[in-house]
Amino acid sequence: MKINVEGVSEIVLEVKSMERAIDFWSNQLGFPIVEQWGYNEGQFDESNENVWATWIYIGGTTRLGLWLPRSFSEKELLEKKKPVSEWEGLFDEGGLHVHFSLHIRQDNFDNAIAVLQDVGIDIKIIEEENDGIKERRLYFKDTEENIVEFYTLDMKNDYQNRLQNGEIK
Hints:
Blueprint: E1 7-14, H1 18-28, E2 33-40, E3 43-45, E4 53-59, E5 62-67, H2 74-81, E6 100-103, H3 106-118, E7 124-130, E8 133-141, E9 147-151, H4 155-164
Parallel strand pairs: 1-5, 6-9
Antiparallel strand pairs: 1-6, 2-3, 2-4, 4-5, 7-8, 8-9
């Protein structure tokens, strides 16, 4: 393999009813909710009002996103058609699915950038620091306009930390 990923970081499913989806995945199947987002002006936000996205820890390095469908304005649709490096916001909803993310270790991240750049793939990189931990995400489109993400956050460690810190039950 040219890029060494560690597995799937996130899988996102579009849902028709957030309440029904949460009931199934969390209440019935027992997967814990680790995060929820609101939605404002075409972008997700950190508010829990009018929940549009729910993240559920499903084991290993993976979490499952449950997202309501989004309607984009004409301006946002034009923005989404641009190369990802030119986006003003983050439009992580691609073709027939929303997006998927592959977990990649920090020490393999720069190599992934080089591989994608070598073959001329347009990318957007986001780097953040949370609780002293540097997280890196890289977004690009595949040939079918699907949004693919490489993400350094280990969802198993994130889940265990949130559980230990009392952020989730």
